[in-house]
Prior knowledge:
29% of the residues lie in helices and 26% in strands. By secondary structure, the chain is of the alpha/beta class. The protein has two domains: 11-231, Rossmann fold, CATH 3.40.50; 236-345, Hypothetical Protein Yjia, Chain: A,domain 2 (2-Layer Sandwich), CATH 3.30.1220.10. It has a seven-stranded parallel sheet with strand order 3-2-4-1-5-6-7, sandwiched between helices. A six-stranded antiparallel sheet has the order 8-12-9-10-11-13, with helices on one face. Helix 5 (135-141) crosses helix 6. Zinc ion is lined by residues 72, 74-75, 106, 229, 232.
Amino acid sequence: MVHPQPLPDATPLTIIxxxxxxxxTSLLNRILYGDHDHKLAVLVNDFGAINIDSQLVAKIxxxxxxxxxxxxxxxxxRDDLKQEVLKLTQREDPPSHILIETxxxxxxxxxxxxxxxTPEVRIEAILTLVDAENVLAAAEDHRVxxxxxxxxxxxxxxxxxxxxxxxxxxxVHQYVQRINKxxxxxDAIQADVPLDILxxxxxxxxxxxxxxxxxxxxxxxxxxxxxxxxxxxxIFDTWSWQSGQPLSLKSLQKAVETLPTTIYRxxxxxxxxxxxxxxxxxxxxGQRSNLTFPGESWVSTPHSQIVLIGKAGxxxxxxxxxxxxxxxxxxxxxxNLMETAFxxxxxx
Length: 348
Ligand SMILES: [Zn+2]
């Protein structure tokens, strides 16, 4: 079937994708805070019961940030995504550009195809972030996902290049090249890239079909046509933990450093006894954990919210509950930390 051409005044739409922890929210915030003339609207989809990413999106865009929870925009809530995008285009003061941040486990092809019969929008580009430190290891476990995310990219941003040596970086570039010869690539630290290239476009509406054909020969079982994310619902599990009691930094460090390696990603806000007035932000990606204080004071009652994403069937929720319950600080007084950033490596 021939799909309708985008209308002449179709709103450009950019899809930001990349595996868990690759830096999608950082890139989104760079764009939102950046110097450009676009009037942006943002849709954020997070894999997990609590949408941490939407809370991390720059507060300046609060009216134009739409949180899509209760499912994944590449499969279970594709229709919601389409409806939200259409509503944006029908606003009295519509955005000049729409950004979609997918969850780290979604297939950007499915997100792109959601708009195949929606001439009100025109897909401008698919941007894929790659974590230079973790992508090769992650791709061993999640080959289809890596192929889909990198294979569909118009621009591949190789992020966190400061964390790897030149040999690793070269291996990452070769890997990306093997999957996608057409995409432009750029190296970045903390998702810092020139904004011009992000709005450059490059999306070829015929590529999904080409990619789909190629797919049959290169993908193993579970390729996207029988997706129903089979690809992720059965590959990933998520679990979250919340508490209104302050946590001990030492115990939290211990809990995080010894997390099983089947947990790929953890993120969330932490209410720390050692620094109770400010939100701490916890990010666990691969073996690396960071706890930082972005300088936000609490808007509501202080509380911790941590979301974990791991291999399906590997999350022992009882043990995890106990692990995080043990981080709650004892009766000791609240101290005050001087340091504002901590980095821990997993020891498992
Ligand atoms: Zn999905």
